[in-house]
Each structure stands twice: as structure tokens, then as C-alpha cells.
Amino acid sequence: MRRISRLRGPSGLRWSTSCRSIASLSSQCSVAKAPVSICSTTLTPSPVAAASSSRMYSTKPDSSTLPQSLGGAKTHVPQLDIEAANEDPHSAETEIIAQESWDMDAGEPNEYTSQTFQPPPPRSYAERTDEIRDPSYVPATTVEGLSTLGGLEGWWDRRENWPRSSDFQGFIEAKRKITHPDSLEVATRRALVEVLVRKARGQHLTEGMPVGGKEELLRALALDLKVKENGEISLVADDSAIELVAKDLDWENVLAKEELTGKVPAVPTLLPGEAQSFKEAAQWRARWKSASLSEPKLKFAVLKRIFQLTGQRVQDHQLPGITDVLSLLRTIKAPPKPKTLSQEIMERKQDLVQLPNVAFAPKRVTRGDKDIALGRFKIIEKELMTRDVNVHPLSVGKSREQKWLKGQS
Amino acid sequence: MAGKGVRGLTEALKSLNLSSQACREAASYRIPSTTFTRSMATEVPLPKLTTTLDHTVSNLWRPSQTVSVTIFDFPSYEPKRLEEWSSKHLHLPLRRDILHLAVVYEGDNTRQGTASSKTRFEVHGSHRKLRPQKGLGRARVGTKQSPILRGGGKVFGPKPRDFGTKLNKKVYDLAWRTALSYRYRRGELVVCDDGMELDLPEEFKGMVGELEDELVDGFRAKWVKQVLDRNEWGRSSGRSTFITGARRNDLFDALDLVPKYGRALDVENVDVKDLLETGRLVVERAALKELIARHQSDLVSNIYVHGVKPPAPKSGIVVVE
């Protein structure tokens, strides 16, 4: 005996009572106009598809527009369409896999093949019981053994429908905010060098810069810095080295390279251990930290780059206090304020916790906690269990009103 | 007697003369430490001050008249420019009392005040005496609208009224800028470029017509959550209030779907209380200018001088671009 499971009726569907063929039913549905299928010709993703969500910040000097309130004639245009060639090489594969898994109705070519977000396939409908021609069909009477298909709930939470490459990518390149002092110092050095390279080349300082891989990072860090008595800072490197770093910071060059070799994962700064050994090996001149940042443009550009690389943002009210690299490092290295008092005590006041006559609890010690500590609660629990009362020492029973609202007597 | 009076007057004049000096000038009136001698032998001698005070006007410390404000791109959070805003707009000292006044004033004025109950004269029904005054062995009663009876009128019940209170405009305006300054000083004021709108991916925009509402909303909610989490504006960072010049449909609709991540308001719907509520304010530049322009009556005089109204402090001057 064959049991044919029926597709569950989707929530948004208007069931037709008239007996029509399945084909005609499916053609009524608006989604069915674009059935998902696989077709070899449609597999090449269009280059524009993934670009929109990859880099949303400015990449060209002329892309900055002044707002209307400043008197600028141009209105704000989101810079989305710049890197057409910025395509993740893996996205095509993901797409194929995603499509194959949803290849339920091979027919018309797919409209969505060039998209990274995968919409659900068109609805298909189970045959009506009175139209089934299979003589061995017996309708199921219990739910057991029937397959569950599920609805659209959590559709976008599945990675095959929302690939990682389509995630929102903002200006901050670091996956998490970098807090380790060594990594921050390396990032600061890198930012300073790169801004100075742009300055030496006479380019726009404050425009967004590409991050690049480890190679680019090390190339920038290899340049030496020299600080004069008055705090003025300059690069000490031959022109070819500067030229190389300048190329790494040139969007056109970077995009062309990405097109050829594929996107290299961005390395904003070194890992803490690496950073420390690098610092020791590099033997930077001690005075580089006394470099002056009094020039507003230079300061803004350096802070912007640090924000991009590490996620460490110097607040506006802290800006006047940043006059040189040392004060900048002091600001960004400062650990964040603890959110709770207990956090503060646990992290910074261990001497308090270790006092023999002081007991520390992150939360209030309640009557129930005392009972548990003494072992009294076991007895209470037992007694409560025999009386069929709520067992947790401090739990409050569900309100009766809840029952009434649900209509349960 | 007369001599005493004259002496008193001179003394008074002297003190007036001293007190009328500015602080910087007062330094010269101080007794030099070298000529000052201690009366008691047990006291420690005063340290000899060798520093000389420079009284020239150029060397005096004055608080900065402007503060720096970074303008960000939205939603990428890319710093675009550095601007200078007047410290009278964004760097006022915290006055909790004034903020309290403003919040209470707003609360009073938002009270609906429509609670209403019926007195015995408004309760429907006949005013017939319920039962005879005497002879039944029961308490004497009049009409059934009596407040002592069930279903009767309410004696001192609520009646519709206006709970609104008053606050001087200059105080209220000061509260607005104090609230903004408080946010600024805590690093909780993010000013974004004009045209603040949530950019949804192009692929999604192409799909919208085909997708069911559930999927469209699900997408928007996930996208806005990603944006907020990436920029540390979301739920784990204590929500954010987004203030724009006008309603921006994508941003507002998306945030309506994830109320635990933030809320969006347009300029018309913002109060001092809203400025103080969530983890941070993400404000459109034009909206911030508008808010300040509307609330600076204590800075801008209404008196015209030579036919011109005195100018307001200038804000939003581009320093670095």
C-alpha cells in the first residue's frame, strides 16, 4: 500500500474548490510565473549581482557629495555600483548548490540565477484526493509516517538562501573590534604610513582605501618613518617602495587585480602574537610615536583608516586631546568601561574578591540561594514535591489569568 | 560720629573697587608672597612663587567655541567629513534639573486627560425613592443614583481635564540642546550624511514583487539587524534611535519589524525624552540642524538691530573633507 503524503497548504494560499487540473491551478499563483529551475546557460552570475552588498563605502575621490543642507547641488547617492568586477569566486558555486537543491520543477529558465539571495521555489500543489488516478492510493488517516515540509519561517536564516558573501559589509573591515594593544599599534603604524604615502603622492587623503591581504599589510609596514624635532613626520623610503604601497591603495589597480586573481581575504592588522614579534623584529624608531597629528586633515585620515582596520572609533569629543601618535594610541588602547559593577570588580579589583573576609556574588544573594547553600533546599524540595507545589525555591506559579485567557477552564 | 561714617563709606568704596575687577586683574591686587609673614611660629612658611602670570589677553585660556563633529555615511558608517559645530549647540554643561523639567513638561502635555465618570446627577434612571422612609426595618435610602449604592454615581470621580503644564520656552530649548550635548559628550551622537536611508540590496528589490509578505518582511528584518550589528548599534549595544528629516520608508519599515534593535523617528515626532532614551542617537545632519534651529530661542535675540536680527551661533562648518 502506498501512502502519498499531501503537501501542506501554505498559509497565504487561497484554495480553489472547483475541480481543475493541477497545471491550471499552479498557473493561477503569481509565484509560479517564475519557477525555480536549473539551466546550464544561466549559471554564470552577472558581475553586478554580488557587488552591491560587498563594499558600500566610497572608493573614488569624486564620489563624495556634499549634502543639500551644506549648499551642495548634488543629492546623496549611495555608492553601490562601483566595483562591478568584485565578485566572490565562491558565490557561483554556492549558487549552483543552492539551485540544485531546489530544482523541483525543471521547466522554464530561472529568473533568479544571477542573484545571490535565493527565493523559495514556486508552490507546487498536491493532487486532490478525488483526482488521483493511482489505484493503490490510500489516504493517510494518521500523521505518522508523513513527511514534514515546513513553511517559509526562517527562510533567510538558512545559509543556502542567504550566502555569507551577501551579508552586509560596512566600512569597518575587522570582523570584531580589535582591542589588543600590539595589534592596535601595528594598525596605527599602517594607517600612518598609508596616509603619508597618499600625501607624498599628492592624492586625496580622506578617501576610502582598500584593505588588501597580508602582503599589502607587510609592504606598508616596511616603510620607515622619520620624525623631526617639531613633530613633523615624513616617510623614509625609496620611491619604488612608496610606489608599490601607493599601488596597493589605488582602487582601480586593486579591482583589476581582484578580477584576475579573485578576492583575497582582507587582513586589516596582525594577530596579537604576530604583532608583538613583528614589532620586536622591525625595530621601529622610538620617536615615531611623537609624530604630530595637529594637522586636521592628516588626523582625520589616520583616524578614519584606523576605524576601518580595527573598528576602534575615536569619539568626537576626544578629538581635541589627540595631538600626536602617543595620545592617539593611549585613547584607542584604553579598555572599554565595564558595563556592570560586578564586571568591574571581577576584572579590575581582584584584590577585593580575594580578601578572606569578603564574599563576592555577581547577583543578589536571595533566601533561596541561602537554602541551596545550606542544603536545606533538598528537604524543602522533597516536601514540596509530595504536595505537588512548584519546586523552585523562588518560583512564582503561573497566573490563573493566563489560563483563563487561553480558555482553559 | 561723622568721621566714623566717612571711614565706613571709603571702606565700602574700596571693597567695591576690588570686587569690580575681573579675575585676571585681581591677581595684581594680591599681596606678594615675599612681603607676607606668618604670625605664628608653628606654621609652615609659604612656598615662594616664582612663576609670573602673563596677563596679556592672547594668553588667557578660553574654552573652545566650537566642537568637532564627524559626519558619517549611512549605513556603511564611513566617516565622510569633519565639521565644526558651535559649543553652544552641542557642548553645553549637563543640567539634570533642566532635563527633568523638560521631560516632566512633555509628559504632562502628552497626558490624554479623558478619564471621566458619572456623578449622581449624570447616572441614568428615575429619581424615585427606592422604598419608604420608615416601617421596613431597613436603612433609609433616596434614589438609586446615590453614591453609596452599587451602580450609583461617583462622588469625586475623574472628569476630562487638561494636565498640561507650562515651561518657559528658553528653558525648554536649553533642555533640548543640553540633551544633545549630553549625548555628544558621551560619544552617543552619530551624525550621518543627508539622505539617510537603509539601502536594501538590488537583488532583493528585484524580487520584491514576486515574494510573499512574510519573506519580504523577513528579509528586511534580517538586513537591518545585520546593518545594526555590524555598526554596533543593535540590540547588544543598547538599541539606537534614528532621527531623519522626513519619513524614510525602507528604514522606518525595517526598524518597525525589529523594535528591540532600535526605533526611527522623523523630526516632527522627536521629544527631549526620546533624545535621552536609547543607547545612542543616529541623526541625519539636516535633521540635527533643524532640531537645533527650532530650539535656540535662548541664543537668538528677537530684537532687531539696525533692521537685522542678530545671527545665531554658526554650526556645520566643514573642516576636513
Automatic annotation (TrEMBL), chain A:
<dbReference type="Pfam" id="PF10501">
    <property type="entry name" value="Ribosomal_L50"/>
</dbReference>
<keyword id="KW-0687">Ribonucleoprotein</keyword>
<protein>
    <recommendedName>
        <fullName>Large ribosomal subunit protein mL50</fullName>
    </recommendedName>
</protein>
<feature type="compositionally biased region" description="Polar residues">
    <location>
        <begin position="44"/>
        <end position="68"/>
    </location>
</feature>
<keyword id="KW-0689">Ribosomal protein</keyword>
<feature type="region of interest" description="Disordered">
    <location>
        <begin position="106"/>
        <end position="128"/>
    </location>
</feature>
<feature type="region of interest" description="Disordered">
    <location>
        <begin position="44"/>
        <end position="73"/>
    </location>
</feature>
<dbReference type="GO" id="GO:1990904">
    <property type="term" value="C:ribonucleoprotein complex"/>
</dbReference>
<keyword id="KW-0496">Mitochondrion</keyword>
<dbReference type="InterPro" id="IPR018305">
    <property type="entry name" value="Ribosomal_m50"/>
</dbReference>
<dbReference type="GO" id="GO:0005739">
    <property type="term" value="C:mitochondrion"/>
</dbReference>
<comment type="similarity">
    <text>Belongs to the mitochondrion-specific ribosomal protein mL50 family.</text>
</comment>
<dbReference type="GO" id="GO:0005840">
    <property type="term" value="C:ribosome"/>
</dbReference>
Automatic annotation (TrEMBL), chain B:
<protein>
    <recommendedName>
        <fullName>Large ribosomal subunit protein uL4m</fullName>
    </recommendedName>
</protein>
<dbReference type="InterPro" id="IPR002136">
    <property type="entry name" value="Ribosomal_uL4"/>
</dbReference>
<dbReference type="InterPro" id="IPR013005">
    <property type="entry name" value="Ribosomal_uL4-like"/>
</dbReference>
<dbReference type="Pfam" id="PF00573">
    <property type="entry name" value="Ribosomal_L4"/>
</dbReference>
<dbReference type="GO" id="GO:0005840">
    <property type="term" value="C:ribosome"/>
</dbReference>
<dbReference type="GO" id="GO:0003735">
    <property type="term" value="F:structural constituent of ribosome"/>
</dbReference>
<dbReference type="InterPro" id="IPR023574">
    <property type="entry name" value="Ribosomal_uL4_dom_sf"/>
</dbReference>
<comment type="similarity">
    <text>Belongs to the universal ribosomal protein uL4 family.</text>
</comment>
<keyword id="KW-0689">Ribosomal protein</keyword>
<feature type="region of interest" description="Disordered">
    <location>
        <begin position="111"/>
        <end position="155"/>
    </location>
</feature>
<dbReference type="GO" id="GO:1990904">
    <property type="term" value="C:ribonucleoprotein complex"/>
</dbReference>
<keyword id="KW-0687">Ribonucleoprotein</keyword>
<dbReference type="GO" id="GO:0006412">
    <property type="term" value="P:translation"/>
</dbReference>
